[in-house]
Amino acid sequence: MSRAGIALRVALLPVVMLVGVVLYGQAVIVATKLMPLPEAGPLTIAVRVSQEFLAATLNAAVACYPLARLYGRAATGVAALVALPVAAAALQGSGAETDSMALLLRGWALLCFVVLLMGGTWLVARRRKAG
User: Fold this and answer.
1) Is the Cβ–Cβ distance between 109 and 50 less than 8 Å?
2) Could you read off the pLDDT of 23-74 as tens digits, one per residue?
3) b/e string for 94-115 if b means 16 or more Cβ within 10 A?
4) CA–CA separation, 74 vs 8, rounded Å?
5) What is the DSSP code string of 76-125?
6) Domain residues of the chain, as ranges?
7) 3-state helix, strand, coil in the chain (%, to 5)
8) What is the pLDDT of residues 65-96, one digit of tens each?
9) What's this model's pTM, rounded to 2 decimal places?
10) Of 117, 88, 91, the residue nearest 102 (C-alpha)
11) CA-to-CA distance for 126 and 16, rounded, in angstroms?
């Protein structure tokens, strides 16, 4: 790999991180539109859990292949770097909240996002390397 290619990938890292945060925000919006939250009832928590999983899945489906293509073997590490700002934003307000259900849902959303993005990127990078 040439030095110019490495320099370009390093220079694109902040842009990739910003796009990852914006993409996650858009995936959350799409998930809430596809699965509207009921006003009350026993399914409210189940729908919230499903919305977060759907948002993480949509984000991973869109981001994994471009990350693996652009960064190759380092794609999983870059996926972890993309997850850092999302994790920081998710954990920022958690200190003031005393509602354990809100904290649990926030932790679930973060876990889904990190596992699906990093795992999916690792699988795609591994598959591209093998093929």
Assistant:
1) no
2) 999 999 999 999 998 888 888 899 999 999 999 999 999 999 999 999 988 9
3) eeeeeeeeeeebbeebbebbbe
4) 14
5) HHHHHHHHHHHHHHHHHGGGT---HHHHHHHHHHHHHHHHHHHHHHHHHH
6) 3-130
7) 90, 0, 10
8) 999 999 988 999 999 999 999 888 877 765 55
9) 0.87
10) 91
11) 20
| Residue 82 to residue 4: CA distance in whole angstroms | 23
Classify 35 as helix, strand or coil. coil
CA distance 76 to 118: 6
Type of residue at 2: S
Q: ∠106-111-115 over CA atoms, to 5°?
A: 155
Residue 57: C-alpha distances to residues 13, 53, 60, 106, 116 (Å): 22, 6, 5, 16, 7
Side-chain-side CA neighbours of residue 21 (13 Å): 13
Half-sphere exposure in the Cβ direction for 125 (13 Å, CA): 20
Nearest to 58 by CA among 17, 82, 24, 90: 24
